[in-house]
């Protein structure tokens, strides 16, 4: 594989910016009054009905599932000194569900109640600590309040909302009010630091079918991290605290500290030598997925085909060595297996050169059987369907026999009738039905329940198959590596046949499975392409390729995207792209991939500035015009960007007004893109 890296700056096809996703109702309690007046000749009557309800929403703690991703990633190291950190939220309305200002006159401004604060050890701010809601309340407001004196917190906590309790746990960030006003975004800036994004999902790692698009909300910090130190970012609640932001009008000048609810927190380190997405992925060890090289020529030749010699305990208790290879091969192989199989032993192959057994397909058949048995819902549904089909076939035979006796023509219009004839011929001998024309059953079998077809289609994508069956030796997939493979259709056929073999006890069961096998495998093969709703062109019939990625990139960029193209340049459908472990991902494409590209996640595109270290200046190059604007910082040396002033300068250069969505589009930096091409395995 040849590899190249380049920033991808035009993401219009996969992401759309939205100024704000405002909820129909903000979180809180509401009263509703319904009045009805009835007028009749000579009088009338007025009816009034009152009711109250509550709109609940996160306030002091946040479910981790609400955080889609953060940037910089948790624990990452890189050139983040020119990046404004941010958090991507799965609920698109979350930043606008509460208000920054308690006064009704300020609600129209629409500023978010969430903010990202960035600080490091030099700021002298302690890490967030676990506490309870009672620790956010002053004793004078609530009898159990434990808020220290001269400390600002949330107003109105003497009366909690529906579902809240003072003993509920939360994470609390304590800091001097002066430090807060040094690092927090200004009152004029915070409205620019939240926006919505709609991102396409068809290229993402997912456990199953992915939605076509997904909406997110993004909350961005207003402060650049310092170079060469570890920084902490905190997503905090500023509900009702707008007056205490820099540039606001504090109602009480005697306050010295502020206590905030911290909804999420993560660490990262800014290095002078960058480690970007491109650098992380470009540095991967790459090549085909195969066992390590061996000195023995015969073992090395087998390794080139994906085989490894493994210990094999035989049924009589003896120990032997057998060849095994999983479904992920370094090169394509032809389809040779004939189905159905009577048992796993029917798939054993003897190597004439060495006398060793090849147990690959036998292991696949047995693995499919075990995976099916482990899923009670599937195994029960499969057995019930087979039993019903068998009973229908027997009933058809009985009807045909009776009809023959009565001189009635035999049915031949459906596959069940055909299966019954074939079964009867096999079991009772050729005397039954002799001389009556009969055509073999068609290749498809439409009566298989769709749920069974979908389950088998997922199995063909190796869903639920233990990883040890896929990669037998850890040396095949070392740390910080990407390994490309061809999917062995024979292995998959045996895997699916093993799962389908449940309930195959008698000769009649074997005959029935023989009737249905081709149609069932074909249906499962066709259905696997619809599981994700992927976009692209299907490849060669039955051909599939992919890669295994073992790298910190999988955990740093969990929303990573993947694409592939064949030799003719047609984009291939992504059948499976899934995170198997924090640092391990698998991708399967429908066809033979000639080129594979990995991208940073589109929804995690970050706000970036152009820092000119030699000149000591910071600018922002505009996307909508061939121009740059100077970036200014709030006085005090805190590296807090004057966001409102920057938005004003951008609007002037673009010659018009600016929304938060347009501001977000101008502020984004191109995401990393690394392309692997066939031709070299260096």
Overall shape: globular
Secondary structure tally: strands:
33
| Tally of contiguous helical segments | 13
Largest sheet, described in full?
7 strands, mixed
Poorly predicted segments: 5-13, 412-416, 429-446, 532-540
Mean pLDDT, to the nearest integer, reads 82
What's the Cα radius of gyration?
A: 33 Å
Query: Structural class from helices and strands?
Result: alpha+beta
Strand fraction equals 25-35%
Cα-to-Cα separation, first versus last residue? 7 Å
Helix content: 10-25%
Structure in words:
About 6% of the residues have low confidence. Strands 6, 9, 10, 11, 12, 15 and 16 form a 7-stranded mixed β-sheet that branches. Strands 17, 20, 23, 24, 26 and 27 form a 6-stranded mixed β-sheet that branches. A 5-stranded antiparallel β-sheet has the order 2-13-14-8-5, with helices on one face. The protein has 13 helices and 33 strands. The chain has 682 residues and is an alpha+beta fold. Helices cover 22% and strands 27% of the residues. 41% of the residues are buried.
Give the topology, please.
Blueprint (H helix, E strand, L loop, with lengths): L1 E7 L6 E4 L9 E13 L2 E13 L11 E5 L5 E2 L4 E2 L1 E4 L24 E7 L8 E4 L18 E2 L16 E8 H7 L10 E7 L12 E8 L9 E8 L19 E14 L6 H6 L2 E4 L8 H8 L3 E6 L5 E6 L3 E2 L19 E2 L6 E2 L1 H15 L1 H30 L9 H14 L21 H11 L6 H4 L10 E7 L1 H12 L6 H21 L17 E6 L2 H4 L4 E5 L8 E8 L2 E6 L5 E5 L7 E2 L1 E3 L4 E5 L6 E3 L12 H12 L5 H8 L3 E7 L5
Parallel strand pairs: 6-16, 11-16, 17-23
Antiparallel strand pairs: 1-33, 2-13, 3-4, 5-8, 7-29, 8-14, 9-15, 10-12, 12-16, 13-14, 15-16, 18-19, 20-23, 21-22, 23-24, 24-27, 25-28, 26-27, 28-33, 30-31, 31-32
